[in-house]
Specification:
The protein starts with 7 loop residues before the first helix and ends in a 6-residue tail after the last helix. Among the domains are: 1-91, no CATH class; 296-441, no CATH class. The longest helix is centred in the C-terminal third of the chain and has 47 residues, at 338-384. The protein is mainly α. The protein has helices spanning 8-15, 19-32, 40-55, 66-80, 85-90, 93-111, 115-134, 146-159, 162-174, 183-195, 199-212, 219-229, 232-244, 250-263, 271-291, 296-329, 338-384, 392-416, 421-436. It is elongated and about 135 Å long. Helix content is 75%, strand content 0%. It is built from 19 helices and no strands.
Length: 442
């Protein structure tokens, strides 16, 4: 039903921008016919009139709550008239007023770091600007108000409203907006999907992000997701897949190496699995070093992987030595019968020899691991030794390198003692070299 005829006089006065007079005429109309006040035209004209009253600095004093009355009327109107027929007929000023005020108040809250206030107002600004642009009421033909969306996202981010913030950022990203100002929104969304364990969302926006900012290194986020949410078997499969299709990077190798190295020390991991993770870490670090011979961290970590393997074998040697000591300590008193004693001695010697053979069998594998550890840790050391100043990671590696090298050469020196004097002297010189460097790099 068309109620415009009932408000014809009101419309005429509104054309002259005489809002106080329009209100009086409006009041007469709804007093004469109360049902008009609840029609879409009646509700919208009320909003339109109070919008005009609120904007007039003089008349507004007479109507201090004009904006609130207008706002309430607009909210009521939108529930009544989804076609926005009255808004199209009388003009859309109230919608713009609500939008501009919400934006202004949102900025004020943002500037004052009142994130809750800012977020609430930018929610309104986004809602009304979406309506304005979707209806084609603005001169600009853009699809939405980018600035309001950005501010809304920032405000909710600072307010700790992660899901709402992510929803705003998604709208901007889905619109393929990739300005320099928005790169942090892409980062936030990736972290959001990592934290919420949403693999589908992460994979989708990871690809979008790579396309939007191809010059940036985004793989750190991928490895973070993998590290936090993949099982060790899935991590290994992912690494192997990247190796197979030749898409792996130096950085990725380094990150996978760290994951595998951490995996070897997880609670409940068997010795066999722990060793397999260690070897996988070693492979990853070696791959990283093969891509960049200046990657001192990768070289050092390869060396540490060999050192850990040496430590496992050395622990077995120590365990066998304790077994020998226990056999000697707990050897029963010899029999007085010469024949029995001869058998007992032979049996005891066989037990001792079997343990000694275990250690003899370990000698060569240990030397291989020690030499490999020295080779790789010296690569890290040689990469850094001529630098005048060190970054924190560099200092950490070189200080630990000289300590590990001193320990390894000390082991080799002691193994050569009494067997090969030249080798002993060479290893002792190396030990002294690295031992004296300890204080230099602290």
């Amino acid at each position: 039903m068309n109620y415009a005829q009932d408000f014809k006089k009101v419309q005429g006065i509104l054309l002259l921008k005489k809002f106080d007079a329009a209100k009086m005429e409006y009041d007469k109309a709804v007093t004469k016919n109360a049902s008009l006040a609840t029609t879409p035209d009646g509700v919208y004209l009320k909003a339109f009139i109070y919008d005009g009253l609120a904007k007039d600095s003089v008349i507004a004093k007479k109507y201090p709550n004009a904006f609130e009355l207008m706002n309430t009327a607009i909210e009521e109107y939108m529930k009544m008239d989804t076609s926005f027929k009255a808004a199209k007929e009388y003009g859309q000023d109230p919608f713009f007023t609500i939008y501009f005020k919400a934006f202004k108040d949102g900025v004020a809250g943002f500037s004052g770091k009142d994130w809750k206030k800012s977020a609430e107002n930018f929610d309104i600004a986004v809602r009304y600007s979406d309506l304005i642009f979707s209806k084609g009421w603005a001169n600009s033909k853009q699809k939405f108000d980018t600035t309001s969306l950005m501010y809304a996202g920032y405000a909710h981010q600072n307010a700790g409203n992660k899901a709402i913030c992510a929803a705003y950022y998604k709208r901007l990203i889905d619109a393929k907006i990739n300005s320099s100002e928005l790169i942090d929104a892409y980062r936030y969304l990736l972290v959001y999907y990592i934290d919420t364990k949403d693999k589908s969302g992460f994979d989708n926006y990871y690809k979008i992000t790579q396309t939007a900012y191809p010059a940036e290194n985004w793989f750190e986020y991928k490895t973070d997701y993998i590290d936090k949410h993949y099982s060790m078997e899935e991590k290994i499969a992912s690494f192997d897949e990247m190796i197979a299709d030749n898409t792996i990077t130096e950085f990725a190798c380094q990150m996978f190496g760290d994951m595998f190295m951490a995996g070897k020390s997880m609670d409940g991991v068997s010795a066999e699995l722990s060793n397999s993770y260690l070897l996988k870490a070693q492979d990853a670090y070696k791959k990283a070093y093969s891509m960049n011979a200046n990657n001192f961290a990768a070289a050092f970590n390869v060396g540490i992987s060999y050192y850990n393997q040496f430590s496992v074998l050395d622990d077995k040697v120590a365990e066998n030595i304790r077994t020998l000591q226990s056999l000697n300590t707990n050897r029963p008193a010899p029999s007085k019968d010469p024949k029995k004693k001869l058998l007992e001695d032979a049996k005891f010697k066989a037990s001792i020899d079997s343990v000694k053979k275990l250690n003899v069998a370990l000698d060569q594998p240990i030397i291989v691991k020690v030499d490999a550890a020295i080779e790789w840790i010296e690569k890290a050391y040689n990469n850094l030794k001529d630098k005048d100043k060190f970054t924190k990671p560099e200092k950490n590696v070189i200080s630990r390198s000289v300590d590990f090298l001193a320990t390894l050469y000390s082991y080799k020196r002691d193994k050569a003692r009494g067997k090969d004097q030249k080798a002993y002297d060479d290893f002792d010189a190396k030990y002294n070299l690295y031992d004296t460097l300890h204080d230099k790099y602290q």
